[in-house]
Each structure stands twice: as structure tokens, then as C-alpha cells.
Amino acid sequence: MLPAAKVLQPELVALRRAIHRHPELAFKEHRTAALVARTLNEIGLETQTGVGRTGVVAYLGESSGPVVAIRADMDALPIEEINTTEYASEEPGRMHACGHDAHTAMLLGVARLLAGQQLPGQVRLLFQPAEEAADEFGVSGAPRMLEDGALEDVDYVLALHVAPSLATGTIACRPGLASGAVDTFRAHVKGVGGHGAHPDQTVDAIWLTAQVLNALYAVPSRRIDPLRPAVLSLGVVRGGTASNVIPAMVYLEGTLRSLDAEVREQLIGEVRRSLEIARTLGGDYTLDIERGYPSMVNNADVVATIANAAEDLLGAEAVVASHGTLGAEDFAYMSALKPGAMFSLGVRAPGAPIRPVHTPDFDLDEDALPIGAAVLAETALRLLQQGTAA
Mapping DSSP to helix (H, G, I), strand (E, B) and coil, where does residue 81 land? Predict the structure, then answer.
């Protein structure tokens, strides 16, 4: 499988760069979806467009046997790229800073590798919109595709994600909890504003906020079991307009990360408890919690199949330990419904610096593209041979 994938590398690089030059944000992936559908049609595959609003689904083989779905996300991020490569983003303020251009190209590579083969079942290719953001109803791309039946009659579901910390030629995957749940909180701490010369005539919202912040930052270390991962981070603290004006309100915005459901609920409760300090001290608050993606769980049998396929293709040393992450991934909605797993694909060239995802200088080693396509295709074949999930 890997030699055939390496033959495809020039095409995969061209596809990835075409997508990279024209990044599109969540649920606006019209150009990308059109490129995907056109490429699939050239291969001779049956396709559906408009799945989950702007997604594309393609079918290989027959659904009379086992069905394995493989998902790739297509959306970009609202980041200004600073790289000066010839394929750098041509769209101001938008960039493929998370590798979804590579994910899409590699899944098209799977289509090339498996097209025309006699498959003992069906491989369903899911080109998903909007992993990075939600629509006006707070729903991201994976649930929208599920609503449109993307996983109907599916036995297993696969995905990968590029990992700039891992060397090209390696993969990492772990069974069980693999990524975190994410929730966002937005709050207004309310006081009574006034002149900076007369603080006694005010209820200083900045002072109130200082007490609330102390409580919030103590939550992971003092309120949560230290053996159960939890993160509470503030990203926005905004208030005030002038040095001699005590503001009546301060705005807070932060993120909550957890692995298990009980800790997730406890974090939300502790945010509310921390904000109650404002009322105790004579102020008030409002709080809005936006529920995000759940924790992602990798099925142990699927992980074992991925690891075995990668070892046979790349060598035993190519499968390295995975420590999981509290980063969030909406593939969690799919792996919660069907036995599935996501693996991390190394994309750091020898001697190259680590360029983290979601940064303006992110880039990846394109030698990883045929490797990702080959591991996905080989794993899918092995799952088909195993038969329907129990």
C-alpha cells in the first residue's frame, strides 16, 4: 500500500497546496468541496454533496458487507499566514493552520488507492465541514453530517490528525479517552461605576473581578481531584475606559477542558460558585455556558488495527506512545456512535523546528501525505476483513 501511495505523492501535494492557497472557514467550504467532488468524480466514485451543509460523501465498494467510514475535515482558521511559500494563503485573514488541507488531500489519496479494488464491503469517505467552529445554532460539522445520515449502517469510523511534534514516518494512537471535552464560559461581573477619586461611592467591578479571578484560577488545583485532568483558562478580561473612571462592569471569557463527564459538570459548577463572590461583595454577575465538544474515546480494537497496519507499513518503531490531549475534536461525536479511532500522524521533517497548529507559521512535511493515506487505506481494508462490529 505504501509504495502505491508514494507514487501518488505529487498529486497529493498538488491537491493540498491548491486547498491551502484558498482556505475557507466553517460552513463556507464551497470551493474546497467543489474540488473534492470533482476529484472524486474523475476517479469514478459516486458522490453526494451538501451533506452537513457543505460536506461531501463518496462511496467505494458495496454496502452489502461491512462499512468503514473515514473522515477528513476541510475548514480553515481565521489566522493571517506569515509563511512566504509559493503555496501560502491567498485569502487575507484565513489560513489552513491546523492541517485540514492535508487531511482532505490524504483522504482523496485513499480514494485513489482503493478505487477499482474488490472490497469485501464499503469504504465511505466523509469530507466534513466546520470542525473548528459552529453554525448559528452552535452546532459544528460532525453533528450536521450525522443528521444527514453520514454514519448510517457504518460499522467502524476512522480519522487522523497531523501532529507537528511527531517526526514524519511515525504515528501515535491510544485507546480510551484521547482528547478533552471543551466548554466556554462568558461572564459579566457587575458593580457600580464612578469617579476614581471616590472609590467609596462605587462598587468597583475591577476589584470584584480580582476576587473572582483568584477563585477561578484555584479551581483546577483546589477544587478538582488532582488525579482527574481539568483545565480552566481565561482568554479575555476586559473592562474600563479611562484611568480615573471606575468601571461598572468587567467582561470575562474562558475555556474549560476535562476528560470525564463528572469533572466536566464540576468545572461548570465551580465557575458559577466563583462568580457568586461578586454578589457576596455587593456586586452581581451574569454567566453564559456554551457547551462544546465531548471527550473523544478511541475504541481499543480499532486502535490495535491502526497500530498493526502502521507497523507493517512503516516498521514497529514507527508507532510511538501517545499521551492524549485536552484539546478538543468534534470527531468525538462520530466515535461516540460507532467503534472508531483517530490517530496522530507525524509531519515534522528531520531537523525541522516544531511549528504548532493554530499558529501563523504552521506548515508540515508533505512527505507525510502518502504515509497518512496508506495507513488509513490499509486500516480500512483490515477492518473490512474483520467483518461487522459486534
Answer: coil
pLDDT in tens, 69-84: 999 999 999 999 999 9
Beta strands 67-73; 284-291: pairing state: unpaired
Mind listing the domains of the chain with CATH numbers? 2-178+294-386 (3.40.630.10), 181-291 (3.30.70.360)
Residues 161, 95: contact at Cβ < 8 Å? no
Question: Rounded to whole angstroms, how far apart are CA atoms 171 and 375?
Answer: 9
CB 326 within 8 A of CB 257: yes
- Angle in degrees, 0-180, between the axes of helices 30-43 and 100-114, rounded to the nearest 10: 10
Q: How many angstroms separate the Cα of 164 from the Cα of each of 88, 104, 130, 344, 350?
A: 18, 17, 21, 9, 12
Per-residue model confidence (pLDDT) at position 63: 78
The CA distances from residue 83 to 74, 161, 166, 301, 384, in Å, are 20, 21, 21, 40, 41
Cell 512503516 found at: 314
User: 110-157 pLDDT, tens per residue?
Assistant: 999 999 899 999 999 999 999 999 999 999 999 999 999 999 999 999
Catalytic residue at 29? Answer: no
Q: Which of 24, 81, 270, 366 is labelled catalytic?
A: 366
Average pLDDT of span 299-315: 98
Which pairing describes strands 46-51 and 55-61: parallel, antiparallel, or unpaired? antiparallel
Which H helix or E strand runs over 377?
helix 368-386
**Contact criterion met (CB below 8 Å) for 187 and 286:** yes
Q: Which of 29, 293, 329, 333 is catalytic?
A: 293
Whether 366 is catalytic: yes
For residue 53, count other CB atoms closer than 10 A to its CB. Answer: 19
Residue type, position 228, single letter:
R
Q: How many Å apart are CA 149 and CA 143, to the nearest integer?
A: 10
Report the distance separating Cα 215 and Cα 219, nearest Å: 7
Q: Rounded to 10 degrees, what is the CA torsion of 318, 324, 325, 331?
A: 80
Query: pTM of this prediction?
Result: 0.93
CA 217 – CA 202 distance, rounded (Å): 26
Q: Which residues contact 124 (CB under 8 A, 6 or more apart)?
A: 57, 58, 59, 60, 67, 68, 69, 70, 150, 154
